[in-house]
Amino acid sequence: MVSRTLFPLALSLVFASSGLLGCEQKVPEPTPEPRPAVKTEPEKPEPPDLIKEDTQVGTGAECKDGDKVKVHYTGRLLKTNFMFDSSVGKTPFEFTLGKQEVIKGWDQGVVGMKVGGKRKLTIPSKLGYGDNGSPPKIPGKATLVFDVELLEIVAPPTETKDGDKKANEKDKAKGGTDKPKTGGDKPPVKADQADR
Asked: Measured between alpha carbons, how far is 109 from 105 in angstroms, rounded to an integer?
């Protein structure tokens, strides 16, 4: 009877030992496929100064410092192409050139456009929002790209007795200000937000 109980035990030891012998040989692990190298686009360097590119030259009057102008614009970050603001499809934006109502890049970049014209402005941070940016949409030291369309010269400058230029005498007589009238939508190009 002992042999009947020992036989299954001996048989299981034989199978167990043969299983251990089989484990001595290592099964090769699959080699992972090499991942393709991620091609990163080289970072676009900030331009040293304002870049003005006329994409469509207008046929109307040419604007100059002191003119109150009406424009449509779309603003993007150069680095990511993120569109942070646009007046297209909304009320056009009005401001007076050279009165620091907008960032320096706009005061310098819109001058010389003709009504009906379109211009691409690439604005380095020193002429935009500087080291601080305009959170949350515009980070510090951001180069900005604006597509600007000059719709109208609302009011040319007028000479006063003392030779100073005034933007729009009629607006001032009605109690208006030099600040653009844009309803509730104020674009992120206000000069009071920019580093100077």
From this structure: 6
- Three-state SS for 154-181 is EECCEECCCCCEECCHHHHHCCCCCCCC
| Paired tokens of 54 | 């006329």
Give CA–CA dist 188/117, Å, rounded.
22
Give CA angle at 104 (185, 110), nearest 5°.
75
The catalytic site residues sit at 73, 84-85, 103, 129, 146
Q: How many CA atoms lie within 13 A of 139 on its CB side?
A: 9
The H-or-E segment that residue 51 falls in is: strand 51-56
Could you give the domains of the chain?
51-157 (3.10.50.40)
Residue 63: exposure state from Cβ atoms within 10 A (0-12, 13-18, ≥19): buried
Per-residue pLDDT tens for 144-181? Answer: 999 999 999 998 876 655 555 444 444 433 333 333 33
CB atoms within 10 A of CB 17: 10
Beta bridge partners of 73: 148
Helices (H), 27-166: 104-110
Q: Specify the 3-state DSSP secondary structure of 192.
A: helix
